[in-house]
Write a structure and sequence with these properties.
The protein is of the alpha+beta class and about 280 residues long. The termini are far apart. The relative contact order is 0.14. The chain is built from 9 helices and 12 strands. Helix content is about 30%, strand content about 20%. It is globular and about 55 Å long. It has 2 domains: about 200 residues, Aldehyde Ferredoxin Oxidoreductase,  A, domain 1; about 40 residues, no CATH class. The strands form 2 sheets. The protein has a 6-stranded mixed β-sheet. Strands 8-7-12-9-10-11 form a 6-stranded mixed β-sheet, sandwiched between helices. This is Aldehyde ferredoxin oxidoreductase, N-terminal domain. InterPro entries: Ald_Fedxn_OxRdtase_N (IPR013983), Ald_Fedxn_OxRdtase_N_sf (IPR036503), Tungsten_al_ferr_oxy-like_C (IPR036021), W-dependent_AOR (IPR051919). GO terms for molecular function: electron transfer activity; iron-sulfur cluster binding; oxidoreductase activity, acting on the aldehyde or oxo group of donors, iron-sulfur protein as acceptor.
Length: about 280
Amino acid sequence: MAGYQGLVLRVDLTYKKVYTEELNQKWANDYLGGKGLGIKYLYEEVGPGVGALSAENKLIFMTGPFTGTVVPCSGKLSIVTKSPATGTVLDCSIGGSAAVEIKRAGYDAVIIEGKASRPVYLLIEDGKVEIKSAQNYWGLGCHETENKLKVECGDDFSVLSIGPAGENLVPFACITSDLYRQAGRGGVGSVMGSKMLKALVVKGTGGVRAADAQKLMDVAHDAFKNDLLTDTNLWAYTDGTPMLVELSHTTGILPTKNFQQGTFDGWLLYGSCYGPA
């Protein structure tokens, strides 16, 4: 099916097993995007009584049908699991290159199951998948971990890693990718740490097939020209997300004092502004 590679990579850390299976095409049609499809897999495979930090919980890295194409804003990776912070279903997205590398390696998803007996990391290079010791990386922060793994594996690999917070099961721990990208909601880093998985290191050299590549290119070009690169959306390029500080403040949803308040009198000091603070 165009837009999908048709394969799911499963990694059982308890038994050190790695295998692939066909993507459920019906689910892919019924639950569009990495978020929807990832939640469907979690719903079918993890029961309501399973704890977020138990070996029976699963950590799902899911791409979408546009991942690896020219479609704008299609590079996010959906990470789906049970949240240690809420005890219920969690979807968290992360930017960077990991989603594209997973897709180019030939997989629509990587599903982590079980729990390793000692720290490990997962190395994926196209069809070659290895579970390797991460003993020398355990205890390191994400930046140091990523830099060292790139020296060991290659600078062209994408790295998803956890730091001491994830290792120590802090319920709001993040997963970091490309040094400055975080999956920052719900404690996905804690789930990764509970499985003794320090990092996922991935590189792919394959492509992604579109049903009509030229039409996809035309639609993407039109979106860039008429929707993204316009005066209305210029703020995204000149100021970035700090512009949202003003919007959040004026609508009463700017987290202040651990969300005891929804506004902050000093917001001009932190957000983009066009006049004196």
